[in-house]
Amino acid sequence: MLTLRQVRLAWILVLPTLLVVVLVAGYPLAQVFYWSFFKADIAFVEPPEFVGLENYLLLFQDPDFRQALWNTLKFTVVSVSLETVLGLAIALIIHSNFRGRGLVRTAILIPWAIPTVVSAKMWQWMLHDVYGVINVIGVKLGLLSQKVAFLARPELILPAIIAVDVWKTTPFMALLLLAGLQLIPEELYEAASIDGASRWQQFWSITLPLLTPALVVALIFRTLDALRVFDVVFVMSGVNPATRTLAVYNRQTLIDFQDLGYGSAISVAILVIIFVFVLLYMRTIGKEALK
Amino acid sequence: MRRASRLLGRLFFYLLVIFVVVYSVFPFYWAVISSFKPSDALFSPDPSFLPVPFTLEHYENVFLQANFGRNLLNSLIVAGGATLLSLVLGVLAAYALGRLPFPPKNAVMYIVLSMTMFPQIAVLGGLFLLLRQTGLFNTHLGLILTYLLFTLPFTVWVLVGYFKGLPRELEEAAYVDGATPLQTLLKVMLPLTGPGLVTTGLLAFIAAWNEYLFALTFTVGDSVKTVPPAIASFGGATPFEIPWGSIMAASVVVTVPLVVLVLIFQQRIVAGLTAGAVKG
């Protein structure tokens, strides 16, 4: 009897959460799918008109969409690679035993905790073309021959945005990898050094293979995040076509252009792209990691 | 010779450590310094690395001229509300999923998990319509509800882990003493999940406090607008004049609470972050 009561209680307890899931995820998602087949503005000034797949066909012809996709991929590949390498380096540093490692771990949490909008603003100020501290130090140390307008030169905006993202999210990567490192049994290293393996050999034959599961998880998390990047790009360069990512273009279409139909089709495209990436990861590295 | 090379290695290692710390901390340090500099020292070709001369004028500007106090209050209401609501809903659901016989357990866990992978941007249009239809556009409650999209799944997922980790005997003892399942949850289990509540609450609060896209899109004017979109749109007297001093002062004000939280609870935060990811 107790069990039946418990099952009923379980339903009652889970129900509010399920309701929220339907309300803020299920229903809006259904709306996005639905309106992607219509020509409609988001305020419904004109009556919506069913257009079938027209919005999706437009995706393939729209050079702005293609550029946004390209920007997003460039951003994702470069930032996630840099974050992985840097994150691994920082994780290895914190993992090795030395005085003050607690301090380092606290220090790297600071960029993680700072709101993305604030970090974008801080870096915008540091990268200021005349008074920015990076220009001042760069010129003083002779690294820059003259002050550079990092945020005005089209070829430098995306690298600047990537630099901010790397600064902000490397800590997360480092913490995930550190957790992975701490799972590797110490005895393996002891055995390896008795057998005369160098630090470098130990890294390639013990650390890296055993770290793969943590690496895969961290990579998936970061890639999913990077593919939907909005905040840092929008704050640093607005809707500038040179850096406009899929998320920025999507919001611009939906809200600024009020184009509910085409904007919804872009949202669906983003979902599909993210889904494809998850599948790819699962198939290539995921399988090996899960063995 | 070997000792010399080991010493050199050690030196190199510590240089690396110093580099990592400076790289992580300097941008925030620079924001703090800049927020205390008078404008002529701020816009100097040879800026000083200490807040000399010192002024509070930017902080006065932020609070007296802009609606920043209002934005700060909005942030508190929205982030606090979203945290509280996701903790209450999360505890109830997580107890059922982690402790009670519940046939569709796995299905629900997968639905919740898929929500954590969900890009916010993909439901932006749908949520916009929902808020318009329900009259919740540009309200605190509307923003709180949309924030559950990213605070609730994580909270449920991590708390399920905490509930599962509690010893079976406690629960049984409570049942033997004649407690109902709900009493068992509130009086016996909940107090033991304290650390989990603190961790998930903190992470939910930080995520909501930092959120930008929804706050930008679902608010108009300053009555509900939170701090991130407010800082992003800070303007000067003319479009050409960017008030960097005030922007840095506002940035410091929103960031200091977070940095303090991180310093106090860093162990918990790290545990929560990695727990969420390892299980996810």
Automatic annotation (TrEMBL), chain A:
Which Pfam families would you find in this protein's record? BPD_transp_1
Organism of this sequence: Thermus parvatiensis
Q: What is this protein called?
A: ABC transporter permease
CDD domains per UniProt = TM_PBP2
State whether keyword Flavoprotein applies.
no
The protein's matches in SUPFAM superfamilies, at most eight in alphabetical order, are given as: MetI-like
Q: Which residues form the ABC transmembrane type-1 domain?
A: 69-281
Q: Name one GO cellular component term.
A: plasma membrane
Question: Could you tell me the membrane topology recorded for this protein?
Answer: Multi-pass membrane protein
One GO biological process term is: transmembrane transport
Q: Kindly report the protein's main subcellular placement as a broad class.
A: membrane
The transmembrane residues are: 9-30, 75-95, 203-222, 261-282
- Keywords assigned: Cell membrane, Membrane, Transmembrane, Transmembrane helix, Transport
Highest classification ranks of the organism: Bacteria, Thermotogati, Deinococcota, Deinococci, Thermales
Protein family per UniProt: Belongs to the binding-protein-dependent transport system permease family.
Q: Where in the cell is it found?
A: Cell membrane
Q: Where is the signal peptide?
A: none
InterPro entries associated with the record: MetI-like, MetI-like_sf
Alphabetical list of PROSITE patterns matching this protein = ABC_TM1
Automatic annotation (TrEMBL), chain B:
Keywords carried by this UniProt record: Cell membrane, Membrane, Transmembrane, Transmembrane helix, Transport
Q: Which Gene Ontology cellular component terms are annotated?
A: plasma membrane
Topology within the bilayer: Multi-pass membrane protein
Which GO annotations describe the biological process of this protein? transmembrane transport
- Principal subcellular localization: membrane
Claim: Cell membrane is one of the keywords in the record: yes
One Pfam family here: BPD_transp_1
Superkingdom: Bacteria
Q: Which InterPro entries match?
A: BP-dep_ABC_trans_perm (IPR050901), MetI-like (IPR000515), MetI-like_sf (IPR035906)
PROSITE patterns linked: ABC_TM1
Q: Where is the ABC transmembrane type-1 domain?
A: 72-265
Where does it reside? Cell membrane
Transmembrane regions listed in the UniProt entry? 12-33, 72-95, 107-131, 143-163, 184-209, 242-265
Q: Which family does it belong to?
A: Belongs to the binding-protein-dependent transport system permease family.
Cross-referenced PANTHER family, in alphabetical order?
Answer: INNER MEMBRANE ABC TRANSPORTER PERMEASE PROTEIN YCJP, MALTOSE TRANSPORT SYSTEM PERMEASE-RELATED
Q: What protein am I looking at?
A: Sugar ABC transporter permease
